[in-house]
Amino acid sequence: MPEVAIQMPFTETIRILEKGFGAALYPALDPGKNVSSPVAGQRDTEWIKTANTVGINIRTIGHVWNIIPYALTLPGVQNAIHILPIWEPGVVASLYGPASWNINPEFYSKELAQHFPELQTVDQQLKVVINILHLCGKAVGMDVVPHTDRYSEMALANPQHFEWLQRKDLVITDNRSNLHEKVQALIFDHVQRNKSATAGLPLPDNAQVFFYDVSETDRLRMLFGDKYDYWGRLARRKAIVSLLFEQGFETVPATMGPPYRGIEVDPDPGALVTDEEGRVWRDYRITKPQKFSRVFGPLARYKLYESKDDNRNWELDFERPNHAAWAYACERYRRIQAEFDFDFMRGDMSHVQMRPEGVPHQRDEYYDLLGAVKQTVLREKPYFGYFAESFLAPPGEMAYGDECDHLEASFADSTLGDLQSEPVGTTSFIRDFAQYRVWLETRQFAPNFTIMTADKDDPRFDKFYLAGNEARYFIALFLTDMPSYMGLGFECRDVHLIPAPNEHYTKLYVFQMPDGAKGTRGPFQWGKNERLYANLVRQKKLADQIIPDIGNAQTRWLVAPDPAGRRKLIAWTQSDIPRYVFVVNLDTDNSIENISVPLPDDQTWRLFFAALSEPEDAVTDHSREIFMKTLIPGECLVFQPQQTT
Predict the structure, then answer these.
(1) Distance in angstroms (rounded) separating the CA atoms of residues 592 and 627
(2) Residues in CB range of 225: below 8 A, 6 or more apart
(3) How far does Cα 308 stand from its chain's mean position?
(4) What are 89-121's pLDDT values in tens digits?
(5) I need a labelling partner for 212 at 20 to 30 A (CA). Which of 41, 181, 183, 378 fits?
(6) Cα 636 versus chain centre, distance
(7) Burial class (CB in 10 A: 0-12, 13-18, 19+), 641
(8) What is the pLDDT of residues 224-274, one digit of tens each?
(9) Contact predicate 478/543, CB 8 Å
(10) How many CB atoms lie within 10 A of CB 110?
């Protein structure tokens, strides 16, 4: 089980890698070298439209090296690894609120440094881990996050790339478009008084030169000091935060859902937080909220567009992009891809589409930041794919306009979708599954058959995973023309009839909160569901056995997902040369009685795998159909022609 795998002695993991890869392992341990990715030879991004991705939050496994023993528990068909955000975090230590472009030092592996003393920085260690994942046949993805921590090093070193407001108690007193100029003046005056944080790196004479002519590398060193002086940089950043807070300056918080714009201070007495320095922070709210309106106070979105009428009415002018901010974010992510050799990006909050008129008929290069990052990297890496975090919500619900149109306009290759948000076999699950298949065949992006995400590994969603987990995994592995996504920990997740302690949920390790409803007090606790894991191991072994025969074969439905969501049976084979027939009962409560599945040809087919029962007890087969007296709840079967060995 994964928990045991990551506790293996380091030397045992190395021995397994040596046995598998021989001398090829040792170049992978050199952070100065790139081990060729399994997708590096691809001329486009089509590969990610059938990739089976596993998401890993490094916090849940302790440190970056433990990605490797965990990855060794995965079958070959789970061929892509998404590493959740890797940067130093800000408020509440949220991975999705990066505070700098530096790799999070908490991911450093003392064990790896002890055995390979030349790997003394977390940057070097991450590069080596990606090399080894490539050697293992896994593509590796990074997060592209269109926002930062509210007072990130990025925001303080580049105020012009962010929106700012000035608040006094419960009132926003100023939100003009050029408010960043006041922030620049305050920061420059502060650094002049305190002198450069790096000796021998003198300050320029004025703020204009400091913020626009000095390189960001030097500006960061002047403001905060050496990259590896973590506590010194933090202390200097906190000093600037205090200065801005005293003057009421904050970055405009990121928002989600229409209408996106138009915020006010939330007057609710509970809508405030007092930090360790005694500062009182207020939450914000949308002035005219809709169903999915959200304000993320600790996050600051890049200022991608200028405002209309000096931002009097919180309206953006989409005809006037802030070119410098676009160039900055795209170039920064391009450098990260090049440094670590990532193969794809997971676009955070890909569902955001802020134009009230919807997706424009003609989009330009400043339509969507995530799409622009992809296009920037594609100039050098034509295989660099874009996995979008969007949920395929109805038009106008989570975004203005049609979300499918938005995904196509932003060059998304595949998208997360929302199948993880329903128990297997419900009417809505089956109905959505059928619709995803329609989009798969008619749209330019591929919806994922998502099993579980870190966001859904949360006490609120225990009901999704009480049953049907073998069926989720089975469909993800063997529906070869559809991508899938699985968050770490699904494969041994315990059944929680009542909520477990917080330490049992990966969602609660996306941030670090010692107290409160979302607090954790200790390391992540793996599930002990040995029965589920044993069942899935059988599927892993089967996948390694038969997937090479069928590759990314297109699907021929023998019994398709029911668009009405009522029929609980599905069955499929391969459209070109039928080698295997897969049958699933999506009903997790009831058996299906006296059913037949049409066969793709007149061969004699035999059952050779059943996920939950003994194969010989399950089936009687006939020349043109498979007849089953009983298909038990959640059962998954595989058939092959009789003559196949």
Answers:
(1) 11
(2) 197, 198, 232, 233, 236
(3) 33
(4) 998 899 999 999 999 999 999 999 999 999 999
(5) 378
(6) 28
(7) middle
(8) 999 999 999 999 999 999 999 999 999 999 999 999 999 999 999 999 988
(9) yes
(10) 9
Contact 297, 92 (CB under 8 A): no
Tokens of 76: 């070959």
- Picking from 155, 150, 458, the residue whose alpha carbon sits closest to that of residue 275 is 150
pLDDT in tens, 595-639: 899 988 878 889 999 999 876 554 555 568 888 889 999 999 999
- Percent pLDDT > 90 in the chain is 92
Cβ–Cβ under 8 Å, residues 415 and 393: no
- Residue 62, burial from CB neighbour count under 10 angstroms (0-12, 13-18, 19+): middle
Q: HSE-up of 276 (CA within 13 Å, CB side)?
A: 5
Strands 555-559 and 569-574: what pairing?
antiparallel
Tell me the backbone φ, ψ of residue 193, rounded to 5 degrees.
-65, -35
Token code pair at residue 462? 């225990």
Written as six digits, the tokens of 555 are 């699907």
Sign of CA dihedral 463, 468, 473, 478: negative
Peptide bond into 259 cis (omega under 30): yes
Say how far apart CA 232 and CA 75 lie, in whole Å: 43
Tell me how crowded residue 24 is: count the other CB atoms within 10 A of its CB.
12
Calpha distance 568→430 (Å, rounded): 8
d(CA 35, CA 16): 18
Q: What is the mean pLDDT of each run of 10 residues along the chain (645 residues)?
A: 97 97 96 97 97 98 98 98 97 95 98 96 98 98 98 98 97 98 98 96 96 98 96 96 97 97 96 89 96 96 98 97 98 98 98 97 96 98 98 96 98 98 96 98 98 95 97 98 98 97 97 91 96 98 97 96 97 96 97 91 88 69 78 96 68
Tokens of 124: 């070097």
Q: What are the respective helix, strand and coil percentages of the chain, to the nearest 5?
A: 35, 20, 40
- CB count in 10 Å sphere of residue 338: 13
> Alpha-carbon distance 304 to 321, whole Å?
6
For residue 574, what are the β-bridge partners?
555
pLDDT digits (tens, 9 = 90+) for 543-594: 999 999 999 999 999 999 999 999 999 999 999 999 999 999 999 999 999 9
Is the pTM here over 0.85, yes or no? yes
3-state secondary structure of 266: coil
